[in-house]
Amino acid sequence: MPYDKPSLALYQPDIAGNTGTLIRLSACLGTRLHIIDPAGFRHDDKALRRAGMDYTALATVQRHNDFAAFTVIAEAEKRRIVLATTRAETSHADFTFAAGDLLLLGRESSGVPDAVHERADARIAIPMLKEARSINQAVCGAIVLAEALRQLSAFPEFGN
């Protein structure tokens, strides 16, 4: 099945509120959200429901038991895994996104392990001040997904 938009993917998310916010974002933008377990919260968490509000019914969320299961699907569907990381040298604005890209965000507390970093097909960073440690996961997801959708002219009704 071809994908007309990129998708966000969360690697073992820690914070239910961030995940709920990204569920809502994905629902509003018509994209999929992949959650790679184990998550640091229960799937029925109150903060997850509160942040996702009533958008969970509109959202397409796909859960994966672990990163290996996620990569099996990525490979079978011939989709690139694009990791957003502070260790990348390419800005998200300079990267050329493709419709099927899986935009992977690391765990809020620790990012991703080296093996996941190495497995990614591409790595991108959001430029920020050197003294800053990182950007909130939900904000990062919104920035990267918005740029990918802009590049792909995902919303022609708005002139792009």
In short:
This protein is an alpha/beta fold and 160 residues long. It has a single domain, classed as Alpha/beta knot, CATH 3.40.1280. It has 5 helices and 6 strands; from the N terminus they run βαβαβαββαβα.
Indicate the radius of gyration in whole angstroms.
15 Å
Termini separation: 24 Å
The secondary-structure class comes to: alpha/beta
The tally of beta strands, per DSSP, is 6
Gross morphology is globular
Q: According to CATH, what is the class?
A: Alpha Beta
Strand order of the largest sheet: 3-2-1-5-4-6
Keywords for this entry:
globular; six-stranded parallel sheet; alpha/beta
Description of the structure:
This protein has 160 residues and is α/β, with parallel strands linked by helices. Helices cover 32% and strands 16% of the residues. The protein contains five helices and six strands; from the N terminus they run βαβαβαββαβα. It has a six-stranded parallel beta sheet with strand order 3-2-1-5-4-6, sandwiched between helices. α1 links the parallel β1 and β2. The two termini are 24 Å apart.
